[in-house]
From TrEMBL:
Residues 27-50 are annotated as: Disordered. The gene is rpmI. This is Large ribosomal subunit protein bL35. Keywords: Ribonucleoprotein, Ribosomal protein. It comes from Ilyobacter polytropus (strain ATCC 51220 / DSM 2926 / LMG 16218 / CuHBu1). SUPFAM superfamilies: L35p-like. GO terms for molecular function: structural constituent of ribosome. Residues 33-44 have a biased composition (Basic residues).
Length: 68
């Protein structure tokens, strides 16, 4: 059976915590920032833990637990 390979793009964008949760960055921070409020932009700076539905998909993309 061939090796399980990690998705390299996901590996660069996602960090796995010690308990196996996935930490990702918010979207919407690159352009069209003039119409967004300061509080919104400050909240988008912080990373967040992916929900359970997204975590299932990320486990498929990172089967070996890389990204630590």
């Amino acid at each position: 059976m061939p090796k399980m390979k990690s998705h390299k793009g996901t590996k660069k964008r996602v960090k796995i915590t010690a308990k196996g949760k996935f930490v990702v960055k918010h979207s919407g921070t690159s352009h069209i920032l003039t119409k967004k409020k300061r509080n919104k932009k400050n909240k988008l700076k912080k990373d967040f833990v992916a929900g359970e539905g997204s975590a299932r998909k990320l486990r498929v993309l990172l089967p070996t637990g890389e990204g630590r």
